[in-house]
Amino acid sequence: MMTSRLVILISGNGSNLQAILDACKSGKLSASVISVISNKADVYGLIRAKEAGIEAIHFPKLEKESRQDYDKRLADYVTTKHPDYIILAGWMRILSSSFLSSFPNHVINLHPALPGTFPGTHAIERAFEAYQRGEIEHTGIMVHLVPDEGVDNGPVLGEQKIEFQANETLETFEVRVHKIEHELLINTLKKILETK
């Protein structure tokens, strides 16, 4: 079985990146991470990549560059890596078709909410606040394809419901979400890679 080549895009701490690196190393994922790219300079995710001996690149948007031009430049760079999949692991920019059209059905995102709920940033906090107001009893996470510029609404590859617990703080809830997030991400990627 061929090992899949993964390019990971991040904007922060990289805890999901770490879950992927660990799963590749243990053999749970038949894949290797060939490049980690961040749009932000001093993020811990780049250190994680360097420590794992993986190319870690800060890829900033240039001052007068349009979103489309940035995405095209990013796509051109990622293409040189010949990835099987591009994983958005906490990438905080909405990719335009200038990027996505280069990799149809090969860009995968993880989002800490269920399909159709809490798209965009701060989904965990927004769900927690909605629960505090008595509006919802559960939230969840999903892994989905990114076919277009819609925010967190592509075809769902995997999802998991998370019930709220009484007297839980936002901090303990976040820790729980991230743990389940890592499991769902790895299990979903495993399924995809085994069927490709």
Q: Give the CATH architecture.
A: 3-Layer(aba) Sandwich
Q: What is the chain-wise order of helices and strands? A: EHEHEHEHEHEEH
Report the total helices.
Answer: 6
CATH superfamily: Formyl transferase, N-terminal domain
CATH domain topology:
Rossmann fold
What integer is the average pLDDT?
A: 94
Strand content: 15-25%
Name the structural class: alpha/beta
**Total of domains:** 1
The main sheet comes to: 7 strands, mixed
Q: Which spans of ≥5 residues are poorly predicted at pLDDT below 50? A: none
Q: In what order do the strands lie side by side in the largest sheet? A: 3-2-1-4-5-6-7
Shape: globular
Q: Termini, distance in Å?
A: 10 Å
CA radius of gyration: 17 Å
Structure, described:
The protein has 196 residues and is of the alpha/beta class. The protein has helices at 15-26, 44-51, 67-79, 97-100, 123-132, 170-195, and strands at 4-10, 31-38, 56-58, 85-88, 107-111, 138-145, 156-163. It has a single domain, classed as Formyl transferase, N-terminal domain (Rossmann fold). It is built from six helices and seven strands; from the N terminus they run βαβαβαβαβαββα. The protein has a seven-stranded mixed beta sheet. The model has no long low-confidence stretch (mean pLDDT 94).
